Amino acid sequence: MRVGKIIKALSGFYYVYSDGQVFQCKGRGVFRKRKVTPLVGDEVTFEADNLEEGYIHSIGDRKNELVRPPIANVDQALIVTSAVQPAFNKLLLDRFLVLVEANHINPVLIFSKMDQLEPEKEAGIEASRQMYQKAGYQVILSSMEEQEALKEIKALLDDNITVIAGQSGVGKSSLLNALNPSLSIETNAISESLGRGKHTTRHVELFTIGTGLVADTPGFSSLEFQDIELEALPECFPEFREVQHLCKFRGCLHNKEPKCAVKENVKQGEIDQQRYDHYLLFLEEIQNRKPRY
After folding, report:
1. Helix and strand numbers, DSSP H then E, in the chain
2. Looking at the domain assignment, is residue 224 inside a domain?
3. Of 29, 74, 117, 126, which has the fewest beta carbons less than 10 angstroms from its beta carbon?
4. Burial 79-97 (b: 16+ CB within 10 A, else e)
5. What CATH number should be reported for the domain holding residue 16?
6. What is the pLDDT of residues 14-34, one digit of tens each?
7. Is residue 166 part of an annotated ligand binding site?
């Protein structure tokens, strides 16, 4: 029996990396009976007489798993957001951050296409950078020519499984190609009429960059909060986590409750008003969510 990690899933086959080789494997029928699907990122035991006819026997415990994209055991997410086109969108960025935080994945923000930023918009992007850093996030300003930023991102990837997330057209595939030119991942220009890129990534696959593994994924195809409970939402905002122990009520939702430390910090400008407004929007969305049966 061998031990390895699934680095690609395609057409019912799982490609398992073990001891410097990749084995094409199938899952045993027992997984189907138990309704368990092996995922990219899974640590597995398998047997194989050759590189093309292996069988996966067992799947190790997962520390997390994402449904869309289907991947497990992710250490961090690089959330790429464009400074120019598609236009910088804080509401969408906060939505990505909540999904990543809810899955206990460490987020790093990358503001891409900084070299295309018009001078009159620089102050706005800089204010956003400072706000997210104050909230507790690492923010990297990046352009494809910016070697320092690429070096910083590469160092973050070492010894981690990383997903790259962000809306279509922000430059995720371009970033991967800049980090490792041998990947030659297909990229598509932004459609002028729609102002967004076309999806070019069809399946989940882990690529080696440095000593880390990076998922080129179709991105989060759903940004809905279907699996996030009301009480868990405040935990997805690090600046709330810092002060919520000072709220009068345990389990405070930082909405209508009196003597709420989060609301007090918003009032004093310590917590960004717009981030708090987005939180209230998400809170309402979860409250109004239709139950699934």
Report:
1. 8, 13
2. no
3. 29
4. bbbbbbbbebebebbbbbb
5. 2.40.50.140
6. 999 999 999 999 998 878 888
7. yes
